[in-house]
Amino acid sequence: MQNSDKEEQKAPRIKPIIEAADSLSLGISMVVAVLMGVGIGILLKNLTGAAWTLWIGVFIGIAAAVLNVYKAYSKQYKEYEELAKQPRYAVKKKLKDDEDEDESEKNY
After folding, report:
1. CA–CA gap between residue 19 and residue 51 (Å, rounded)
2. Which one is predicted more confidently, 18 or 73?
3. Which residues cross the membrane (predicted)?
4. Please, how many CA atoms are within 13 Å of residue 80, restricted to the half-sphere of its CB?
5. CA spacing 20 to 30 A to 62: which of 35, 80, 107, 108?
6. Measured between alpha carbons, how far is 62 from 55 in angstroms, rounded to an integer?
């Protein structure tokens, strides 16, 4: 019983740290993806002897970095959509209702 209480107390403390590390890791993952692509390109260049194969690895690394950015964006957008559904943050509906009331009060 006490162990489950301790786990429940630890979970909320760890969750923000994990989310922050996930956000910080985007920049690191971009650099790592490009470096891995360059490494693949150097390996291909050494295996084949053709200098242009280095650029294949570079493009693979850049593509992986762009994919990481897209995945992070889509994850953040989903979280935004979830937040927008909550009535507490339904700003658009309130603004639209306020504009309708303002227009009806004005007599030109």
Report:
1. 41
2. 73
3. 21-44, 50-70
4. 6
5. 80
6. 10
* pLDDT tens figures, 19-28: 666 666 788 8
Distance CA 26, CA 63 (A): 14
Alpha-carbon distance of 12 to 1, in angstroms, equals: 18
Instruction: Please write the tens of the pLDDT for every residue from 54-90.
Output: 999 999 999 999 998 898 888 888 888 888 777 776 6
What is the DSSP-derived secondary structure letter of residue 26?
H
Of 11, 14, 13, 19, the residue nearest 79 (C-alpha): 19
The pLDDT score that the predictor gives to residue 79 is 83
Give the three-state DSSP class for 45: helix
Residue closest to 54 by CA, chosen among 64, 39, 69, 65: 39
How many CB atoms are closer than 10 A to CB 100? 10
Cβ of 67: how many Cβ atoms within 10 Å? 12
